[in-house]
Amino acid sequence: MFQSQKIVIINLKLKERMVNVMNKIKMNVQGRVQGVGFRYMTKLVADQLGVTGTIKNEEDGSVTIEAAGEEETIKKFIEEVKKSPSPSGRVQYIDLQENPLMQERKKFDVIG
């Protein structure tokens, strides 16, 4: 009896760890995303959701986002980015990839 209780505790801890797995993604967002407050509004969304990572402008007029968070949180974040956090912005295309090698960050930063 004592041994089976121990197994249950181990399984519960394993399940808890699996739920909290961090998803890391990289997005290249194209459309009207530069010069409209897109990066700063995206940062506000990331901060509200508890997403960490970076957002930066690219020379081709797109924006690159690296983001990490729990699966459901990242799904919500992606949905908000699709709608364009900036009222003046417009997202036309998103190239979304998993990014397991993304550097860990403590917050979401606007860079470049």
TrEMBL record:
Instruction: State the UniProt keywords alphabetically.
Output: Hydrolase
SUPFAM superfamilies, A to Z: Acylphosphatase/BLUF domain-like
Q: Fetch the InterPro entries from UniProt.
A: Acylphosphatase, Acylphosphatase-like_dom, Acylphosphatase-like_dom_sf, Acylphosphatase_CS
Query: EC?
Result: 3.6.1.7
Q: Its catalytic activity?
A: an acyl phosphate + H2O = a carboxylate + phosphate + H(+)
Enzyme class label = hydrolase
| Entry keyword annotation includes Hydrolase | yes
Which residues does the UniProt record annotate as the domain Acylphosphatase-like? 24-112
Q: Which PROSITE patterns does the UniProt entry name for this protein?
A: ACYLPHOSPHATASE_1, ACYLPHOSPHATASE_3
GO molecular function annotations of the record: acylphosphatase activity
Keyword Mitochondrion among UniProt keywords: no
Q: Which residues form the active site?
A: R39, N57
Q: Which family does it belong to?
A: Belongs to the acylphosphatase family.
Q: What is this protein called?
A: acylphosphatase
Upper lineage is: Bacteria, Bacillati, Bacillota, Bacilli, Lactobacillales
